[in-house]
Design a protein that fits this description.
Strand content: 15-25%
Number of strands: 12
Number of helices: 11
Largest sheet: 7 strands, parallel
Radius of gyration: 20 Å
CATH superfamily of the largest domain: SPOUT methyltransferase, trefoil knot domain
CATH class of the largest domain: Alpha Beta
Helix content: 25-40%
Shape: elongated
CATH architecture of the largest domain: 3-Layer(aba) Sandwich
Low-confidence stretches: none
Number of domains: 2
Strand order of the largest sheet: 8-7-6-11-9-12-10
């Protein structure tokens, strides 16, 4: 584990960490480069424990010992607070960042094999909501999470941070498009329950009282909700009864409520 002190934010060794606030740039560079960014020694440690491999770490001096313990053979670049802020575009309060090699995603059938409760996220664009949904999945007993092709990246830095590293704890992968996804999930023996506000939907408590043995909960995007293709693929449409003039919950909150109701 080489430890290298770097004083210049333009140093090419730090290229993976530059301009992290530019979301569009990171969306292009991270998948294409096979990388994602993990933030804080705790989250980096969870990624490493899940078998992910760091390419390098960026740390401030006071966090060096903690970060070095999870670095393995990767180089550790030590910078001042000022250099870290100039480099990333924000104050790195958590003391450590890691450029992690992005693992190859597994097949859907392998991820859901034996799963009794699966959470599906369709086209959710807010990384905070994706991270919060993963945290709910981990804390409330989901066996796997599946994300649609246009869903925000669970390994984006904000998603990882909000999830508290649970994106490394819950098995996950990407689904194909509907209706192909329906065939894959039915082939795995999963009942598709779409959370939506539609006429004739079954209330969550009624569905939970007679829940199928193996269920995949399909959650829709912020604002627009589930697509027509997702609703057409569903075996049951389920709704969470609301009061106080509120029609629905935030998608991550709705996922938490539904997962709690269907806990086994």
């Amino acid at each position: 584990m080489p430890i290298e002190r770097v004083d210049d934010p333009d140093d090419p060794r730090l290229a993976d960490y530059r301009d992290l606030t530019d979301v569009a740039l990171r969306r292009v560079l991270e998948p294409a480069g096979g990388l994602y960014i993990a933030e804080s020694a705790k989250v980096i440690g969870r990624a490493v424990a899940a078998g992910h491999r760091p390419r390098s770490l960026l740390v401030q001096e006071k966090w060096l010992d903690e970060a070095a313990s999870v670095a393995g053979d990767a180089p550790v670049y030590v910078v001042t607070d000022a250099v870290a802020e100039r480099l990333t575009g924000y104050a790195v309060h958590r003391g450590a960042l890691a450029a992690m090699h992005r693992p190859v995603l597994p097949e859907v059938a392998d991820v859901v094999a034996g799963a009794r409760t699966v959470l599906i996220l369709e086209d959710i664009v807010d990384h905070t909501n994706v991270g919060a949904a993963f945290r709910a999945a981990a804390g409330l007993g989901a066996d796997a999470v599946l994300v649609a092709p246009r869903c925000a990246d669970p390994l984006y830095r904000r998603s990882v941070r909000v999830s508290m590293g649970t994106v490394f704890q819950v098995p996950w992968t990407r689904l194909p498009e509907w209706p192909e996804a329906r065939g894959v999930l039915h082939g795995a023996g999963l009942h598709l329950a779409a959370l939506a506000l539609t006429a004739g939907a079954v209330t969550l408590d009624a569905f939970a009282a007679a829940r199928p043995e193996r269920v995949a909960l399909v959650m829709g995007a912020e604002g627009d909700g589930l697509s027509r293709r997702a609703l057409a693929a569903a075996d049951t449409v389920v709704t969470i009864p609301m009061s106080g003039g509120v029609d629905s919950l935030n998608v991550a909150a709705a996922a938490a409520v539904a997962l709690w109701a269907l806990r086994v």
